[in-house]
């Protein structure tokens, strides 16, 4: 059911597979569902920093599609995309191309979180839509306003006070 005051659009869920607990993924799906948004699962490979072979790309695409299939029970339209290039440029371009309403990143509590936080910080300056970081302990039942406020507060701390 759509919440009044929020228009339908696209929610970009950027993954590195480290923070993709089923709970966080379902939270993103429920959030997209609640606001009648399409959910796009994005994995970005930067060929300049990560060599990639076709068999590895097929494995990544398969994993993305499996994540999308795990959300099949939700009403929203879910799409899995493997994109190539500099993550900052690719995500900001995808956000503009789809007129995204939100960009999200799941955190896992691992070392890769620092990289994702820096990327989120840069995207808050580049993109017209908000950027939200999901803490690792978020649950799909938490799509209520209080939990969203906690995610926003978490994002502000992670992005040094900046949240679009």
Strand and helix map with partners:
Elements: E1 10-14, H1 22-34, E2 38-45, H2 54-69, E3 78-84, H3 87-98, E4 102-106, H4 112-126, E5 131-134, H5 145-158
Parallel strand pairs: 1-2, 1-4, 2-3, 4-5
Helix pairs in contact: 3-4
How would you describe the overall organization of this protein?
This protein has 164 residues and is α/β, with parallel strands linked by helices. The protein contains 5 helices and 5 strands; from the N terminus they run E-H-E-H-E-H-E-H-E-H. Strand 4 (102-106), helix 4 and strand 5 (131-134) form a beta-alpha-beta unit. Helix 3 packs across helix 4. The longest helix has 16 residues, at 54-69.
- As a percent range, the share of helical residues equals 40-55%
Largest sheet: 5 strands, parallel
Known CATH architecture: 3-Layer(aba) Sandwich
Q: From N to C, what is the helix and strand string?
A: EHEHEHEHEH
Tertiary shape? globular
What is the rounded Rg? Answer: 15 Å
How many discrete structural domains? 1
Mean pLDDT: 76
Report how far apart the termini are.
Answer: 25 Å
The CATH homologous superfamily: HUPs
The structural class is alpha/beta
Strand content: 15-25%
Spatial arrangement of strands, main beta sheet: 3-2-1-4-5
Compute the number of strand runs: 5
Which CATH class applies here? Alpha Beta
Work out the helix count: 5
Low-confidence stretches: 1-7
CATH fold category name = Rossmann fold
How would you briefly describe this protein structure?
By secondary structure, the chain is of the alpha/beta class. Helices cover 43% and strands 18% of the residues.
